[in-house]
Design a protein that fits this description.
This protein is α+β, with helices and mostly antiparallel strands. It folds into three domains: about 45 residues; about 240 residues, MetI-like fold, CATH 1.10.3720.10; about 55 residues. It is built from twelve helices and eight strands. Helix 3 packs antiparallel against helix 4 and helix 9 packs antiparallel against helix 10. InterPro entries: AA_ABC_transptr_permease_3TM, ArtM/GltK/GlnP/TcyL/YhdX-like, MetI-like, MetI-like_sf.
C-alpha cells in the first residue's frame, strides 16, 4: 500500500505546489543578488570618486538662507534643520491645497447638477478649462502673469490699511501671543473634546428617541465661544504687529510670499476640477428614488442633499478623492519651477548641490513623500470603511 500511494503521488518536481515554491525561491534569490550587485557597484564607484557616504552631513552647516520658514532658521543652521524646514513647507502647501481643493471641488461638482442653467454651464466651463491645462503651466501663469504683475511695495494695494498686496506678496498683521495665551489654547482643546463627547451623546439620543440635536450650532458655539470667553477673561493676551512702510519695504507684520500663493492657487484650482467630476459622478450614482422619497417627506432641498444624497455618494467619492489628495501632495514638488522653498527645492536641490550626497538626500526625499502618502491613504481608508454600507 505504501508503494502504490508513493507511486501515485509521483516525484516532487511534478508537484505544482513544490514547483511554485522552487520558482519563487529562485526569483527571490535573483532579486536579492541584483540588489546586492547594485549596492556593491554603487559603493565601489563612490569610493573610487572619493565621495563619502552616510548621514553625517546632516550635522554640517548649511550656509544658505530660505525665504519662508515656519521654525527658526539661519545661515548657521544644519542640513538637518534645512530638511525640517523644507518638510514643513511641503506639508503647509499640501494641507492648504487639500482644504481649498475640497471646498471648491464640492461646490463646483454640486453646481454642475444645478437646475440653474447659467450656474451649471459656468461649473462645466471651469472643469473643462482647468483640468485640461497642465499644472505646471497654471503655476507659471499665476506666478508670472498675475502675481509678478502686481505693483511695487510703495504702490501696494491696501485693504483697510492693514493688508497690503504687492509684488513681494501679501503683508498682513502678525499676532504676537502674550503670557496667558496658553489658557486660550487649552480652552480650545477642551472645547474640541466637549464637542466630540456631545456628538456621541447626540447619536445615542437620536437612536433612542429619534430627535436630533443642532450639532452644527452647538459645536460652533463651543469651539468659538469657550476660547473667546477665556480670551476675554485673561485680559486679551494677544497683540498685533501692524505692518508699516519703512524705506522700500514693510516693517512688522508677516509676509506670505508670492511663490506660496501661486503654488497654492494652482494646486487648489487644478485639483478641484477633478474633485468636481468625482463629486458629480458620486451624486449621480445615488438612486433617484432616494431623492423622490425625501421629497415625498417634504424635506427641503438642502436637507435632502446633506442628509440623504451626500452620505450615500461618499461611498463612491472617497476612494477617488484619496487618489486626488495623493496627487496634490506629489504635485507640490513642482514648486521648484517658481522657487518655493519646499522639500525638493531646498533639500533635494540646494542641499544636494552643496553636499553631493545624492543617494542619501534623494532616498530621504522619496521616503518622506512615501510616508506622507501612506498616512493620508490610511486615514482616508479608515474614513472610507466607516462610510461603506454595512450588510448583514
Amino acid at each position: 500500500m505504501l508503494r502504490s500511494s508513493s507511486r501515485a503521488r509521483g516525484p516532487l518536481w511534478r508537484n505544482p505546489a513544490v514547483r511554485a515554491l522552487v520558482f519563487q525561491a529562485i526569483l527571490l534569490l535573483a532579486l536579492v543578488a541584483l540588489v546586492a550587485m547594485i549596492v556593491f557597484n554603487t559603493m565601489a564607484n563612490l569610493e573610487a570618486r572619493g565621495i563619502t557616504t552616510g548621514f553625517g552631513f546632516l550635522n554640517e552647516r548649511a550656509g544658505f538662507s530660505i525665504p519662508q520658514t515656519l521654525i527658526d532658521y539661519s545661515g548657521n543652521s544644519t542640513y538637518a534643520r534645512t530638511f525640517i524646514v523644507g518638510l514643513l513647507n511641503t506639508l503647509l502647501v499640501s494641507v492648504m491645497g487639500i482644504v481649498a481643493a475640497t471646498i471648491i471641488g464640492f461646490a463646483v461638482g454640486i453646481s454642475r447638477l444645478s437646475t440653474n442653467w447659467l450656474l451649471a454651464k459656468l461649473a462645466a466651463v471651469y472643469v473643462e478649462t482647468f483640468r485640461n491645462i497642465p499644472l505646471l503651466v497654471q503655476i507659471l501663469f499665476w506666478y508670472f502673469a498675475v502675481l509678478q504683475a502686481l505693483p511695487s511695495p510703495r504702490q501696494s494695494l491696501a485693504v483697510f490699511d492693514i493688508f497690503f498686496i504687492n509684488v513681494r506678496g501679501l503683508v498682513m498683521p502678525d499676532p504676537q501671543p502674550l503670557p496667558g495665551f496658553e489658557a486660550v489654547l487649552w480652552a480650545l482643546l477642551l472645547a474640541v473634546g466637549m464637542v466630540a463627547l456631545l456628538v456621541l451623546y447626540a447619536r445615542r439620543r437620536q437612536a433612542r428617541t429619534g430627535k436630533a440635536l443642532p450639532m452644527y450650532w452647538l459645536g460652533a458655539a463651543l469651539i468659538i465661544g469657550l476660547p473667546l470667553l477665556v480670551f476675554l477673561a485673561t485680559g486679551m493676551p494677544l497683540e498685533w504687529s501692524i505692518p508699516e512702510m519703512a524705506g522700500f519695504n514693510f516693517r512688522g507684520g508677516v509676509t506670505i510670499i508670492p511663490e506660496l500663493m501661486a503654488l497654492w492657487l494652482a494646486l487648489s484650482i487644478y485639483t478641484a476640477a477633478f474633485i468636481a467630476e468625482i463629486v458629480r459622478s458620486g451624486i449621480q450614482s445615488v438612486p433617484h428614488g432616494q431623492v423622490e422619497a425625501a421629497r415625498s417627506l417634504s424635506l427641503p432641498g438642502n436637507i435632502t442633499l446633506r442628509k440623504v444624497v451626500i452620505p450615500q455618494a461618499m461611498r463612491v467619492i472617497v476612494p477617488q478623492l484619496t487618489s486626488q489628495y495623493l496627487n496634490l501632495i506629489k504635485n507640490s514638488s513642482l514648486a521648484t519651477a517658481i522657487g518655493y522653498p519646499d522639500l525638493v527645492a531646498v533639500f533635494a536641490g540646494t542641499a544636494l548641490n552643496q553636499t553631493g550626497q545624492a543617494i542619501e538626500i534623494v532616498a530621504m526625499t522619496m521616503a518622506v513623500y512615501l510616508v506622507i502618502s501612506l498616512v493620508v491613504s490610511a486615514l482616508m481608508n479608515i474614513y472610507n470603511a466607516r462610510t461603506l454600507l454595512k450588510e448583514r
